[in-house]
């Protein structure tokens, strides 16, 4: 009954009604499908649409041309697990006691950490709205119950439950181990097959597909037909196969007449690691400079999101949850308060600006940097000199002298303007303190000097 | 007599004769003056002409528009001392036993290391050709005799004999200490005053001015009228003052009618350190990724070097010595064999390509990377994982698996293509081994695995 009420609300949404035509009109009572494609460790500069010259990504470039390309889209963490937790819940991982969840490269089956059971994922929330849900690919939020995808709102799971460099390397379908070790060469193509099959099987009902590729996280593997194809070595081959995969998903949606009924997102969980390009950004995976956290962000929804739009408005993965709630029915849907803000009006072109959220970037539970509007503040920049002197494991002995970068003219975070904008620093520190006070006590304690 | 013979050779150089007009014609028997302006730790992306948005550099941008802007110009070391040794001698510092000359931040007056006495600098060579020579600014090649500027071909010296973060901080004129500690706010403007005075006093004879600014090396200081002027904080103010300084030098040359008789170079000794922008390049000062070694490179010589030319041909500081020898008379001029190659034909537009030199980049005596044509090879890339794990002081325990980057499509050194170009790797390793075999035994020993 409750589900029915929500669909009725959807039915009377005037914006979507006027966009619905033909076959789509017949299904207009259905809220839109959602496909979120997540690359692993892909850099801001790895796609043609973002300036890559050595890698050809015609499908992603076309997807961008047919939708919205965000040039200031953030993952709120520079490493895998907290990024994924934040994307799926709309909340910072530092709230969940898993900021320290650095799964080691060799797993033990007693390792029972994972996304807490009281968190609500996009899958849980959309399933409550009648969606078929699937997670295909990398999970990395706990491989044992009650932390598996199946415990967190997904009807279906197929993939490696963690990173592709971790042992034991295994491919699972639901709870069944299909392969050990995984044949990684065909991983991307098998994920794609699973994804298109899921779409085919669920085209008549609303669905949420979370397609989280393991690539281009190392070790790099492409299938036979993509090997030695790019001008960017194994990394480029892998990205070109991911691009092909995106093309397959889009072709499937088109073939099934689901184009205008499906919102497709593309992003990466953090910046590039050893290989891969951060474009003009400073730093890489693991750093909270933008090279570690600013990622490609493409949204395609024909008839709803204007084609060919490019925006430099800051948005982040934490905003995806509330945005999807707004686009698929009523706001809400989560048991716990969200950090994200709904950007539905911005995506649909009703609002010129994004919601103007404050984005926080942590190293474990220690706040490092924040982005707000045109400003990026480093409240605890790693002490680079110590770092270079070999004290990388002492990164928490950080500098607490704020640095301020004006991202509107300094995308590479090269010029500290804190001294000439004390008012901005003060305002940002106030906003940061205000937000941190809503965090668990241990996070407040770790950042005590920011709360003074 | 010998000097006279050389000037006569110059007189009959047809190319220069046809370019000489008016007042310049009357002085055509004189070889061209040389002004080399060197910034300290300035990044590839810090100038408007190289993409900076937060910093305004109208004088350097105009200088580039009136001459040649090199987009693949290298300093052959990512740190100060070996960079300067290589620029002034046309030879790698690793040949000189001073690759390890990392002057500590606190000097002792017993520290008697420095540029060896058997090396020939540009100043020595040009003085032998009748030039007045001055070094104004940072030296950093030994502050005690026999390593001072005055021991290495310079008639005149004014400046801080080393970096501006070193103690005791002192300003010297010749051997006289003028100030201790140095008032750094007015350093750039005083260097500029000294430089223009030297030009005025020597306009009637050929001169070589080596104007080696201490800025924007930290600590950052700009004079009153440049403070808080830029949109890039203290770093930007300092760069804008350096830009003003370049403008003053160019205005002085114009006023004295020396424009067409003076080759002016602008470059930096290595990439940016904490602040400053490497543009789209990977890494910073201290790294042999291009962000540490590729620098702005501008050459202006009206009537000889075509205005508005931009070239991506690789060239480096080691090529400056032989190029200047060719442009000021006969090749040669150095007591020891050079690593650089003369690029006179390329600068003057007679040759479409630069000499195609192999450029080596060392960390101390350990070869790290090399650039040849479109390729950059990493023969001993720092083991980033160890580095991040805190083993930065063990950088010499390096990986010896070559990585290859195609700089023609991958300026950010993001995509290793070694596996798809084994022939290129083999050829480059052969060239590297061939060159390393000409190095002193201790350098060969340090790189033994590259000589197998």
Compile the SSE list and pairings:
The structure is a homodimer of 452-residue chains.
Chain A: H1 2-11, H2 14-19, H3 22-26, E1 33-39, H4 58-65, E2 68-74, H5 80-89, H6 122-127, E3 132-137, E4 156-159, E5 171-173, E6 176-179, H7 187-202, E7 207-212, H8 233-255, E8 262-268, H9 290-293, E9 294-300, E10 309-311, E11 315-316, H10 320-327, H11 344-347, E12 358-363, E13 366-372, E14 375-378, H12 384-388, E15 403-406, H13 422-436, H14 441-446
Parallel strand pairs in A: 1-7, 1-8, 2-10, 2-11, 3-4, 3-7
Antiparallel strand pairs in A: 2-9, 4-5, 5-6, 8-9, 12-13, 13-14, 14-15
Helix pairs in contact in A: 4-8, 7-8
Report on this model:
2 copies of one chain form a homodimer. The first copy, chain A, is α/β, with parallel strands linked by helices and 452 residues long. Chain A has 14 helices and 15 strands. In chain A, strands 1, 2, 3, 4, 5, 6, 7, 8, 9, 10 and 11 form an 11-stranded mixed sheet that branches. A 4-stranded antiparallel sheet of chain A has the order 12-13-14-15, covered by helices on one side. The longest helix of chain A is centred in the middle third of the chain and has 23 residues. The radius of gyration of chain A is 21 Å and the shape is globular. The termini of chain A are far apart. At the A-B interface, helix 8 and helix 12 of A face helix 8 and helix 12 of B.
